[in-house]
């Protein structure tokens, strides 16, 4: 049997047994686990400047660290579509040859056919690429999408069990970001719609028993090299009892802000830190008390789509409200 995944756009179609587990849950509820990012795919100057790629993944799991059975990275800045897989956090060899059938502002329909030995991928009824199976296709249980496009419909089509799900148009919402508990550090949390005024980020954690420092960044993307732009860098330093706030753009740090009335962290003692995104600033509270404000230096805010935490701290929970 051939299983199909039809993607219409923004439309993704995945058919048949490999996605049976995904089908058992309404897409509106599943989206927060699969990392669906909803953006209107149209030609705009911010899109040209900041968003050069989008991606579609057939996942063996429900978070960004899961194995990717099929990874499609549509790269306008390189005019190519990269096909790959990822297992145990290691990427395989890329495949880049073939056409580039996408244009800014143009709707598209993608069809992914899962055959016995390979995936066949067509765009707008034209065959574009094949991708030989590297991982068993029966491991696929979710679809993860990220980028500047909007999904209108998801179809799962099998020989005996066709079904279609229409994805309703929804407002950007903060409640779709699920909580995370006890993540490994360093940790990158994808904020799939980017930052927006009114968002509150609740971080519960504990510095190590002999800490040097720990770092919380609101940044663009999860990759650390080249250094990503950082809208808000919050860096408690135990060695000199300071808390540095800053931004980074094009690899260069700006002027630090260091004034504080007191140093609110202690080795081995739990804390609750809340970052509120306001129209003109980030406002930080620690253990229920206002601590500092940091005025926005970089925009647009929605460009910054990752919460990144590293160094001498353990995190018990991250949640958004």
Automatic annotation (TrEMBL):
Residues 1-16 form the signal peptide. Gene3D superfamilies: 2.60.120.200. Keywords: Lectin, Repeat, Signal. InterPro entries: ConA-like_dom_sf (IPR013320), Galectin-like (IPR044156), Galectin_CRD (IPR001079). It comes from the Eukaryota. The keyword Nucleotide-binding does not apply. Pfam families: Gal-bind_lectin. Residues 15-157, 187-321 form the Galectin domain. The keyword Repeat applies. One of its GO terms (molecular function) is carbohydrate binding. PANTHER family: GALECTIN. This is Galectin. It comes from Larinioides sclopetarius.
